[in-house]
């Protein structure tokens, strides 16, 4: 039943983070969705089950995986302008898949992983299209929060269970799949249109800087502070990065719009 405990603990953490973020607007919900709410628990379980070296290697892979997530967000945002939810999801997955091999190759070195992830995240922030102000119907969905939490918990449990089989790099990438972001982007798109999805995805792309900072901090601090302390400090680094205000051209929606949030 160890897998169930891991899944429940991770789901509870994700539910708490997304519920809090849901009161701050779509953009900040996107930033929160990029926090390592799946990666951090996965590293904690890997640290306990597989040891420090395994967890560090997985953390490097999680840094390079930000490039995959940036490709997903950019692909979804652009496709959503002309198509529906399925089109956006398909092109988002295609964008992420296009970065899968570079991310895998960069996982051998933290410096390479950082260059790739930060570069791709910057491109996503810069090129996700903006639009005029939009007013959307008021709509909320607590089911989305629960579904995202369950999906995150399941991903963490799966990653921890498959670790002995797949290896540290594959597990680091698996723990960074766009589980939460994909679900939220689809619901925002369906309820508020492509502009609402773009607001969320721009915030998400910005939040990937915090995700990269988390992985890098964990890798660099572990030899000096020990892995448990490094994990806590790395979470703090991700949180601080997420507090930096996002200033690109924005798309505003009506107060209370969207399934997770009051829009900004």
Quick description:
This protein is an all-alpha fold and 264 residues long.
Structure explained in plain terms:
The protein has 264 residues and is an all-alpha fold. It has one domain. It has eleven helices and no strands. The N and C termini lie far apart (42 Å). Mean pLDDT is 76; it is low at 131-140 and 247-264.
Give keywords.
264 residues, mainly alpha
SSE order and pairing:
Elements: H1 2-21, H2 26-33, H3 39-50, H4 52-79, H5 85-98, H6 100-106, H7 110-127, H8 142-166, H9 168-174, H10 179-225, H11 227-242
Helix pairs in contact: 1-8, 2-10, 3-4, 3-8, 3-11, 4-5, 4-6, 4-7, 4-9, 4-10, 5-10, 7-10, 8-9, 8-10, 10-11
Given helix and strand content, the structural type is: mainly alpha
Question: How much strand?
Answer: under 5%
**What can be said about the biggest beta sheet?**
none
Q: Report the end-to-end length measured between terminal Cα atoms.
A: 42 Å
Number of strands: 0
What is the radius of gyration computed over CA atoms, rounded to a whole number of angstroms?
17 Å
Q: Average the pLDDT over all residues and give the rounded result.
A: 76
Tally the structural domains.
1
Characterize the quaternary organization of these chains: single chain
Shape verdict: globular
The helix/strand order is HHHHHHHHHHH
In which range does the helix fraction lie? over 70%
Provide the low-confidence segments as ranges: 131-140, 247-264
